[in-house]
Amino acid sequence: MPDLLAGFSVSLQVTAFSLLVGIPFGLLLALGVMVRNKALRALSLFLVEVGRGAPALVLLQFIYFGLPGLNFTIESFAAAIIALAWNTGAYTSEIMRASLLSIPQGQREASEALCFTRIDELRFILLPQSLRVALPALLGFSILIFQGTSLCFAIALPELVSSAYEIGSTTFRYFPALLCAGALYACVSIPAALFVSHVERRAGLYAQR
Fold it and tell me: Mainly resides where (predicted)?
């Protein structure tokens, strides 16, 4: 169990850093897709489509094994964060873009009438409301990213699944090791899923008001 808990800690750290980087990155991509500048919009669309279209395992292996071919070596922990943050940003960009577009046009017109700058409009009007709309979906996706950290065993990161496999290969008792690893995932995922359901209900009640 101490070895599993050490891997569990690594999984939580990768999840936290990936979300801290990926969600703001997703907001920037959402804004980039919505701008009028064609070059910036094309770049944002490229990053979104690659991040969504390529499996997370492919992104992990590309960054960890592919970039050294360009004389750019990254440690497994940093590679995991970059890959999962890219994947997070690509998916959450669509969530953020949809939530931004859900704000009534009248509020945008009101901000123009009050001579708000684009930054102030985004900061004081659009973001507070859009984040409230996007929050349940972002929380649900965060659970998927936590579960997706199990793919990091492919790049030799000592996370939970890697720890379970190492214990199994040493003791030849794969079943109890993987069962304990699954229980640790469930200890986070199930309460988090219940919390997301609660947030969705509260958001639904707020929308009805």
Answer: membrane
Q: Which residues of the chain have pLDDT under 50?
A: 208
CB atoms within 10 A of CB 99: 22
Quote the DSSP letter at residue 123: I
26, 84 contact by CB (below 8 A):
no
Dihedral sign for Cα atoms in the order 60, 64, 70, 73: positive
CATH architecture of 2-208: Orthogonal Bundle (1.10)
How much is the pLDDT for 115?
A: 78
User: Which residue intervals of the chain are DSSP H helices?
Assistant: 2-34, 38-53, 56-61, 76-101, 105-113, 118-120, 127-148, 160-171, 174-208
Please list, in sequence order, all residues whose beta carbon lies within 8 angstroms of the beta carbon of residue 67, skipping any fewer than 6 positions away.
Answer: 73, 74
For the question of whether the overall pTM of this predicted structure is more than 0.85, the answer is yes
pLDDT 10s digits, 124-162: 888 888 888 899 899 999 999 999 999 999 998 999 999
* CA dihedral sign, ordered 99, 54, 4, 190: positive
DSSP states along 11-25: HHHHHHHHHHHHHHH
In the prediction, which pLDDT does 118 show?
A: 79
